[in-house]
Design goal:
It contains 17 helices and no strands. It is an all-alpha fold and 362 residues long.
């Protein structure tokens, strides 16, 4: 059950981070002749599940914030918690890559392009508000994205409308969830380059996170039954995959709104298993480690893609065997975690000072 420390959300964050990092790393082996496992079982699929979990977590956090803070304080805190880490990680990574550029390769560093006159300062405006990769991925707008993930732009837009969704959910929670799912289906535009990246399509994941918090006691009470239902849904998806001769990734993790049902099924299973997992954390005294890592999940997500691309740009991934690939995966995890730890204190202080200053001024 979720405690006041949101320990289940902490566990979900770490699970989602690991899924996304592993998925992104697996993409680096698309051209490998030695290793086929990543592109057949890891690429895309588990990353899509991880992203859906992140949207649900964001919805849950928005719900909790709106029960604790006034509307003004909610917007100030959410804005600072997203944009301050985003910009601090972005420019720190750009500066590090600028220095490493004397010895190593990296495909594109916007800061280097700025110094070479290939980009102007205006190109960095979308970065300052955290929507650079979102604009690029959805609408094809040329931006100066570097650390950005497209789903950050989605989350920013979701946070903006969260108070409205929250109010309606207080009155009619199931109707609100149904409406969110309807919006996702109706707004799915297959003519876009990445139709499942748009904020209006992913609103169903975000809304379910809010719904989960709204009915938390009920979800906890029936967690075993819900987990069994989730397993039936997933096994049913596997059976459909076998009968249709389509990949499990295509059935369980499609780039379409119906993937919500499978993501929720996995969430129900994780929720039912969590009390046992948490006892393991307590027994081995890992609670503080889990909470510490979870508090840096967002920072880790902003860093991981840069680290993975840096490794792949300087190592011929197609020539790695399974052991070497695993070692570089561990290197990506450790490097990302260490950088996030180094940045955490500065980011936390900047957030605290900014929130206090802004709230005092308004």
């Amino acid at each position: 059950m979720l405690s006041t420390r949101n320990t289940f959300l902490d566990f979900l964050r770490l699970t989602a981070v690991l899924l996304v990092i592993t998925s992104h790393y697996a993409y680096m082996f698309d051209n490998s002749t030695l290793i086929t496992f990543p592109r057949e079982y890891l690429t895309g699929g588990i990353g899509r599940l991880g992203v859906s979990i992140f949207f649900m977590i964001s919805g849950a956090l928005a719900y909790v914030s709106l029960t604790r803070y006034s509307l003004r304080e909610y917007y100030v805190r959410r804005t600072c918690s997203v944009l301050i880490p985003y910009n601090m990680v972005y420019f720190t990574a750009a500066l590090i890559l600028l220095v490493l550029g004397f010895y190593f390769r990296y495909p594109v560093n916007p800061l280097e392009q700025l110094m070479n006159g290939e980009k102007n300062v205006i190109a960095f405006l979308p970065t300052l508000v955290g929507i650079d990769h979102y604009l690029h991925g959805i609408w094809g707008v040329e931006t100066a994205y570097l650390t950005g993930e497209w789903f950050i732009g989605c989350i920013i837009l979701h946070y903006a409308i969260a108070p409205l969704v929250f109010r309606i959910m207080q009155l009619a929670p199931l109707l609100t969830m149904s409406a969110a799912l309807t919006v996702s289906v109706l707004c799915y535009d297959s003519t876009l380059a990445n139709p499942y990246w748009s904020a209006q399509v992913r609103i169903c994941d975000f809304a379910f996170g809010m719904l989960f918090m709204h009915f938390l006691p009920w979800f906890f009470k029936w967690r075993i039954l819900l987990a069994v239902t989730g397993m039936v849904v997933i096994l049913g998806g596997c059976a459909v995959s076998d009968l249709s001769q389509k990949s499990i990734r295509e059935i369980l993790f499609p780039l379409a709104p119906r993937s919500l049902f499978f993501s929720v099924a996995f969430l129900f299973i994780l929720h039912a298993c969590y009390p046992v997992i948490n006892r393991g954390f307590i027994r081995f005294r890992l609670n503080n480690n889990v909470s510490g890592l979870a508090s840096r999940a967002y920072i880790i997500m902003l860093i991981q893609h840069v680290v993975i691309i840096f490794i792949s740009a300087n190592i011929n991934m197609a020539e790695l065997n399974a052991t070497q690939a695993t070692l570089f995966w561990l290197l990506a995890l450790i490097t990302t975690e260490r950088i996030s730890a180094a940045l955490k204190a500065g980011i936390a202080m900047a957030e605290k000072i900014t929130v206090k200053y802004v709230l005092k001024k308004i």
